[in-house]
Amino acid sequence: MLQQNLFFGGPNSELASNLADLRLRFYVLDTRCDIHPVLGRQCAAEPWRSTRIESSDIIRRVKEEFNVVSDSLISLGGFRNCETSEPEIAKKLLEEMLLKNGVECKYSSTSNSQFSGPASC
Q1: Which residues of 40-76 are buried (b: 16+ CB within 10 A; e: fewer)?
Q2: Are β-strands 74-82 and 2-9 bridged in parallel, bridged antiparallel, or unpaired?
Q3: How far apart are CA 110 and CA 119, in angstroms?
């Protein structure tokens, strides 16, 4: 499954200072979403739109818990990736590449978005 991940934060590091960020994840051929995909794409192009979405629990939490003011989100970039039908082979290739280049890594035991050590595998 192809997916695109875009990250956003506040202009004054409101999210980053709390070890948080806002991620929009788009799936191809998948309709799982907190907001409508068209609205999500508009927010990706113009991040300030995100804080105007009242129907999203995630946006409400970002505004309330991290004091992100309306119209202030900024893009932090993103990436695309594909899931593989052979994750163990991909895992081994990634680990070998990192170790070959002197990057120590360890797979997280809590979440694939959290890492331990200098690099995440």
Answers
A1: beebbeebeebbebeebeebeebbeebebeeebbeee
A2: antiparallel
A3: 15
Find, among 76, 54, 105, the residue nearest to 5 by Cα: 76
With contact defined as beta carbons under 8 Å apart, do 72 and 8 qualify? no
Distances (CA, A) of 4 to 1, 27, 33, 69: 10, 7, 13, 26
C-beta of residue 15 within 8 angstroms of C-beta of residue 9: yes
Residue 20 has which token pair?
């948080």
Q: Are β-strands 22-27 and 2-9 bridged in parallel, bridged antiparallel, or unpaired?
A: antiparallel
| Contact between residue 15 and residue 22 where contact means Cβ atoms under 8 Å apart | yes
Q: Tens digit of pLDDT for each residue in 34-82?
A: 778 888 888 888 888 888 888 888 888 888 988 888 788 888 888 777 7
Q: Which of 38, 32, 75 is nearest to 53 (CA)?
A: 38
